[in-house]
Amino acid sequence: MSRPIRIALTKGRLEEKTVAMLESLGYDCSAVRNKGRKLILPIGDGSVECVLAKAADVVTYVENGVCDLGVVGKDTIMEMGGTYYEVLDLGFGRCRFALAGLAGQPFFGGYGTKRIASKYVNVATAYFEKKNMDVDVVKIEGSVELAPVLGLADAIVDIVETGTTLKENGLAVIEDIAQVSARLIVNVASMKLRREPIQALIDACERAVKAGGTV
Ligand code: PRP
User: Fold this and answer.
1) Number of Cβ within a 10 Å radius of residue 87
2) Residue 158, ligand 1, Cβ within 6 A
3) Ligand 1 center–CA 82 separation, angstroms
4) Which pLDDT score is estimated for 133?
């Protein structure tokens, strides 16, 4: 017998929202809710199983076909690229990419190459290339807001959700870059070889999004 349909979920905030969405569709997710330290869990009757992974790894597993589907933020998709189908905007995990700097300090204009800190080096690079602006991008792994405050960078490209982290650290948005939300992605071969159950799952998720139950 072939293995169950495998869906990779981004651990943390998106995991919780995805599980709530699947439950709203009638899938029994009690194994995921009581997962302990397990990373592969059955959903419903076991014909679907979910894999809990970090965002970038969700893309890697789906791209390589060891998972058929994945739920991951558009931020990770924009940063990593790759070959897979992005089939649905799930509507939750909404935030945005923004350029931000020290509040009250002008960013554009002046001479000298600006230094930009970001966890999303590719997104930052593409954004400034589009502007025809030559910048140095420095990779920071987290709490990127520190970089301009400590004087390492002139600005950051980062995720802004409520804006609280920026505000509490004396930073402000200079420009919005792109809207971000959770997306459903599908492996290219799985979409052909296991079309029926995968399409059924996509359709069900689409119904949940339309019903507004996922936001
Ligand atoms: C994200 C992001 C910001 C913060 C924005 O960080 O990088 O730091 O959330 O949220 P807010 O606008 O609601 O304040 P995350 O919590 O994922 O941790 P990290 O900084 O370690 O990446």
Assistant:
1) 17
2) yes
3) 24
4) 96
